[in-house]
Specification:
382 residues; alpha+beta; Beta-Lactamase; 5-stranded antiparallel sheet; 12 strands; 45% helix; elongated
C-alpha cells in the first residue's frame, strides 16, 4: 500500500510578506501597489529612488501625489469610472506620461498597470520606468540627425539656388529689357504710337514678373508638400507625450509646468508625429526663454477655437520677444538664439498651416510670451 501523499505546506502570511518584500527590494522598475480607493499599499525600493520618498512616507496616501496636473485632479474620477463601467483606458495597455518628483519637478515615464485580486479586495500594480535617460539618448540621436540633415539641406540649397537662378534668369531679364525699352521710349515726346508701345512693353514686363512668381511658388510647393498620415488622435495624450520628451534635461532649471487640457476639445485630426514636433519645439523654446528668469512657469492649455478647430496655447514667463524679431518671428533663419539656426518656428508654421490651422505669438498677460496654434477637430471623423 502506497504511503499517503503529503500536500505541500501552504505559505504563511509571514512568508508571503517576506516574499513580497524581496520582490519590492529587487524589481528594477519602480513598482507601486494601490487599492480601489487609490491608496498606496506598497512602494518598491526603485520607486523610493525614483520619486524621492521613503515607503513609510507614502503608504496610506493617495497615489495621485506622484502625478502632476491634470492627471492629479482627474485620477480619482478615472478610478471611479473604471470601477463603475469596467472600461479600460490604461490598465493592461500602458502609456507614456509624466510623473512628479518630491522636489516638485516632473519627469517622463512609461507606465504599465496590472489588476489583481487579493482575497476579496481588488488591487492595482503600477510598473514605472523613468524615460529620462532613454529620452536624452534619443535627443542626442535627434541632434545628430539634425546636424546631418542640416549638411544635406546646405547641399540641397546650393543645388536649388543654381536651379532657381537658371529658372528665374529668363523672365527677370525680360522684365529688365521691357522696362528699359519703355523708359527709352518715354525720353522723347511720346505720341500715340509710342505710348502704345510703352503700354505693350509694360504689359509684357508684368507677364514676365507673374511668370517669375509662379516659378518661385512652384518650387516652394515642391519643397513643402509631402505625404502625411493623419488620423483622429487624443490631443491630451499627444501633448503629454510631447511634454515628457521636451522636459528631458530641464529638472535642474526648476520649471513649474501646468497642463490645463479641456477634455471637451480632445479629438483632433492630425499627423501625430508632426504636431508633436510643433509642441516639443515650442516647449523647448519656452524653457530656453526662462533660463535666466526669476519665475519659471510653463502653461500648456487647450480649448475649443473657432468652428471646427481646437486651440493650443503654450505660455512662458521669460523675457518676451524682441520688438525687432517679432514682425518676422516665423520667417526662416530668423532667431534670437546665439547658436540657433532660425528654422524651428518656420517649420512649426509650415506644419500647422499644412493642417489648415494657423500659428501666432503675443505677449503673455503677466510676462513672457504666449504661442497659440489651431488644429482641426477630429469629432466629425471619429
Amino acid at each position: 500500500m502506497d504511503a499517503p501523499v503529503t500536500p505541500p505546506p501552504t505559505q504563511t502570511a509571514v512568508e508571503a510578506e517576506a516574499h513580497l518584500r524581496s520582490i519590492l527590494a529587487t524589481v528594477p522598475d519602480a513598482m507601486v501597489v494601490i487599492d480601489e480607493a487609490g491608496s498606496i499599499l506598497s512602494f518598491s525600493a526603485a520607486a523610493e529612488k525614483m520619486f524621492g520618498y521613503s515607503e513609510a512616507e507614502v503608504v496610506g496616501r493617495n497615489v495621485k501625489m506622484l502625478m502632476p496636473n491634470p492627471d492629479r485632479d482627474r485620477h480619482d474620477q478615472y478610478l471611479r469610472n473604471y470601477l463603475t463601467t469596467g472600461k479600460r483606458k490604461i490598465i493592461g495597455i500602458g502609456r507614456v506620461t509624466t510623473a512628479l518628483h518630491r522636489d516638485g519637478n516632473t519627469f517622463p515615464i512609461e507606465l504599465a498597470i496590472g489588476e489583481a485580486w487579493s482575497g476579496n479586495k481588488r488591487i492595482f500594480t503600477g510598473f514605472i520606468r523613468d524615460l529620462t535617460e532613454r529620452q536624452e539618448t534619443l535627443l542626442r540621436l535627434q541632434d545628430l540627425q539634425s546636424e546631418l540633415a542640416h549638411v544635406g539641406r546646405v547641399s540641397e540649397m546650393g543645388t536649388l539656388a543654381s536651379s532657381l537662378a537658371h529658372e528665374l534668369n529668363q523672365p527677370l531679364t525680360a522684365v529688365a529689357s521691357y522696362c528699359e525699352s519703355a523708359r527709352d521710349l518715354l525720353f522723347v515726346q511720346p505720341d500715340d504710337e509710342t505710348l502704345a508701345m510703352v503700354r505693350e512693353a509694360m504689359d509684357e514686363a508684368a507677364k514676365q514678373a507673374v511668370r517669375a512668381g509662379q516659378i518661385v511658388r512652384r518650387l516652394r510647393d515642391f519643397m513643402s508638400h509631402g505625404e502625411t498620415e493623419r488620423q483622429v488622435e487624443s490631443l491630451q495624450r499627444l501633448i503629454n507625450e510631447a511634454n515628457a520628451l521636451a522636459l528631458v534635461g530641464s529638472r535642474e532649471h526648476g520649471i513649474d509646468v501646468q497642463l490645463i487640457l479641456d477634455p471637451g476639445a480632445d479629438l483632433v485630426f492630425v499627423d501625430r508625429i508632426q504636431v508633436q514636433q510643433v509642441v516639443v519645439n515650442l516647449i523647448r523654446n519656452a524653457i530656453d526663454a526662462m533660463i535666466d528668469s526669476p519665475v519659471r512657469s510653463l502653461s500648456i492649455r487647450t480649448e475649443r477655437g473657432h468652428e471646427g478647430f481646437v486651440e493650443v496655447t503654450i505660455e512662458d514667463t521669460g523675457a518676451g520677444i524682441s520688438p525687432t524679431v517679432a514682425p518676422q518671428l516665423f520667417q526662416p533663419f530668423v532667431t534670437s538664439k546665439a547658436n540657433g539656426m532660425g528654422i524651428g518656428l518656420s517649420i512649426c508654421r509650415t506644419i500647422v498651416q499644412a493642417h489648415g490651422g494657423r500659428i501666432w505669438a503675443e505677449p503673455a498677460k503677466a510676462q513672457g510670451t504666449a504661442f497659440h496654434f489651431t488644429l482641426p477637430t477630429g469629432e466629425a471623423k471619429s
